[in-house]
Design goal:
three-stranded antiparallel beta sheet, 3 strands
């Protein structure tokens, strides 16, 4: 059983109006990249074995839910900020980067 990650980042109103699966898949992919350092990492399976869908990142490993919800100390090599609830911990420092990246994507004509 995997875990689906969904963080509420304050997306500007104009970006919220975009109803395009390609745009939201790109946003999910970028969010996954931005919170990488927060995902506990031993062999990389938890971070790398994901399904990216519009507005969804699903970590497919059977232990993903336990790792996400268990409050314990994680090894921080090579992910120096590894923690449970990685998306929520990443949001304060990475959320604005996501918004900026999404805006640039729109400005480029969504290419």
């Amino acid at each position: 059983m995997g875990i689906e990650v969904a963080t509420n980042i304050d997306i500007p109103r104009v970006l919220k109006k975009i109803d395009n699966d390609t745009f939201w898949t790109y946003a999910a992919s970028e969010w996954h990249r931005l919170y990488a350092r927060y995902v506990p990492y031993r062999d990389g399976d938890l971070y790398n074995n994901v399904t990216i869908k519009p507005k969804e990142i699903i970590h497919n490993m059977p232990y993903a839910s336990e790792v996400y919800s268990t409050n314990r100390h994680y090894r921080t090599t090579p992910h120096d900020l590894a923690t449970s609830q990685w998306d929520k911990h990443a949001a304060p420092t990475q959320g604005q980067k996501l918004v900026s990246t999404m805006q640039k994507y729109v400005d480029r004509g969504m290419k």
